[in-house]
Structures are given as C-alpha cells and as structure tokens.
Specification:
Rossmann fold; 3 domains; 20 helices; 434 Repressor (Amino-terminal Domain); 8-stranded mixed sheet; 8 strands; about 450 residues; Four Helix Bundle (Hemerythrin (Met), subunit A); 7S RNA binding; nucleotide-binding; cytoplasm
Length: about 450
Amino acid sequence: MFSGIKEAIKKFLSSTSPYEQSVEEFIRELQRILIKSDVNVKVVFEFTSKIRKRALEEKPPQGVSRRDWFIKIVYEELISLLGGEEELNVLPKKKPYVIMLVGVQGSGKTTTAAKLAWYYKNRGYRVGLIAADTFRAGAYEQLKQLAEKVGVEFWGDKGLNDPAEISRKGLEYHLSKKAEIIIIDTAGRHGYGEESKLIDEMKAIADAVKPDEVILVLDASIGQKAYDLAKKFHEATPIGSIIITKLDGTAKGGGAISAIAATGAKVKFVGTGEKVDEIEPFRPKNFASRILGMGDIEAILERVYSTMSQNELEEMADSLMSGNLNMKLIYKQIKQIRSMGPIGKILRMIPGLSMSLPEDEGALKVSEEKMDMWLNIINSMTYEEMEKPELLEREKSRIRRIAIGAGVAQEDVRELLNYYNYIKKLLKQLKRRKSLLKKFGGADEFLEEE
C-alpha cells in the first residue's frame, strides 16, 4: 500500500539540494504515489497544498532541522487527512442503539455485521442482527449462520421482499428481546450503474427504522470510484462513520482515504482478516505510520517531539502543582499525556520531587484506551461538575447520568473519580514536601543532582 513513500522520504532526507527544491521534488513524488494508489486527485492536491504551505512558512524550534520538521508536518497532515489524531469512541452513546450498514455488493457488509456483533458482544452488550438484504442470494443464510457462530440473536423473513418492512419488523423483534445494539445488514448492487436503486432502498430503510448511525462499509481496494460513491451515499443518508474491509490484502487503500474526504466521516473500524474476530478500532496514527514506513522515521519524530516537549512538560508540571485540581485540568493533562508520557514523568520535572514519588508508580499509569474513555466521560459532565468533581460523590445520580451520556458503566465513572482523588492526594503530599525542601537551602539542587 502506498509503496514508494518510504523511499521518497529517504531521498528527501539525504538530498543535498536546497530545502525548498527538495520540498517541491518530494511533493511531486508524493502526488504521483497517492494518485497511483487511487486517492482522488482533488484530495491529493488539497493535501499536498497544506504540506507545502506549512513546510515553507513554519520555523522549527531551536535544535530541530528543517528536514526533520518537514517529516513531522507530513506525518501530522496525513493523520489529519485520515480523520484526525483522536480515535472514535466505538461504544454506543445510548441503548438501544441501531446501526445500519450500507455499501455496494462485495464490500463485505454481511461479514462486517457479524464482526461488529462479535466485537460488541465481547464487551458485554446484547446484540441483534437483521438480514435486510433481499437482493443477494444466500445473504439470509450467511448472516443466520454467522449469528449462530457469534452467539447473538438473529431476525429475518424469507417471505418478505421489502427491506424496509423487514428492518422495521426486525427492530420490533430485537427490542422485545431487550437488545442493546441492533445491526442491520442491507443489500448492495454489483457494478456502479445501479447506485440509484441502492440509494433509494437505503433511504426507505432509514425512514422505516431511524437508525442511530449509518456506517458505510468500503472494500480497501475500491479505487478511484470511492470518492463519488461515498459522496452519493452521504447525500442520501448522512454517513456517521466508515468501516474499511479487506485491509489485510494487497489493496492500494487510496479509495478509503478518498471516502473519508468525501463524507467528512471518520473510519471507526478496519477488517484485518476473514474471521469474525478480525476487526479492530481504526487508529489514524497507526495507519499513518504504516503508510510512511514508520520504522524509518520514528527516530526523527522522537527527536522532534523530545525537543518540543521539554518546555511543555515543565509548564504542565507547574500547572499541576500551582493550580486547583479539577476535571478540566485532568482533561487537559490526559490530552497532553497521550503525546508526552505518564504523569510520573511529568511530576519528575519538578525540582526535588523525583525522590518523593512512590516507588511503585503503577497507580499513575493509565492505558490509552482508558484515557480515551475518561476523556469521553469528562465530555459528558456539566461545566459545574468539571469545576467541582466533588459534586459527583455527593449526588450519585450525577454519576448515573454521566455514565449514560458517555456510554460507559457507572463503575468507569467512579474509577475516574478514584484516579482524580489519588492525584489530588499525591499533589498535596508533594506540595508539603516541596515546601519543606525550600526551608533547607540547597536541598532542591541536591535532590536534582541525585
């Protein structure tokens, strides 16, 4: 996929030509590679125009070369093109939650429906599948067998030919079974001359069931037609997100990028194989790394970010020590920690405190997945709750409301509160110790040298 970008980066870094000339040569090569990889021409030129503008206008910080800074720009713009740095929250925001899968025939919708069912079932949700594809022979039996394999409820009716009616009755059935996530597998069409029939059918189903989210399923090898096709789907029924299938093969993948640009929707999942468990949330950073041949530019990015982050780390440490801790500050710190490291590393920037931190910093370590969940929880709080997290402990109904809004369990909200209280307690201890150190002249410097 996107073969040649890795070599283009190597050539750019080793070039002895003037910087501006090297930038233009790299951009021309990048354009050629992306268009050859089926990225829409309009998307390619808008993307490379942003890179050129930043490359010629931005000044790198002291200690960072212009060429290293340029690689950082390419990396960041690619992540932006793929939907941005933040990963989508793949858990539903409400229950029940109705998902409608759309796409052309052969994109892998039926298998994807089963994969989604497997993914959510394994996270504790009651899932129901609806076979609304009346066009493809065997679609009903395939989804039924996959539902049995995954172990979720299935509904379909071979005697009905109206996909909208099937979807409506299927929804009623699954709601009666207390399903929390309901996934509708819709029909596709072969070729690209029958989009109007497909889109009319999609509109009828959407009108009948009012889905909470419409997901466009795209084959990674779809090619140049992806941009126009995704745009037509989006105009008919707004696409909430995208799932890219068959990303494990030799597909060029450019069509998927074009679809993102055409709809403004973000990729939610990627299919990495044929088995029902071979699905994973889409991570823009990882995909960008794969495109660029990350192994060869990791050292460059590490060099750039380490130079940039020293001052940011010190500023963060100061804000932790001097500010009144609340969820707004926790939110800000989590966002920065995602790129700069665990809070223990940040607190060690404060003179004299490295020896005061607990030996076992396990309680300070939080996984990226958990951080994303916590950010979502904080986003579900009111302004007052962010300012005064103690309100949540006094009024338990607030925790229940926040959990529902964030699509998480109440225990997850309490876990965030426990982390907040732990950090608050730790900061109080550290402030006292720092105050004591200041009473003994030179103690700060002594501990720093240690």
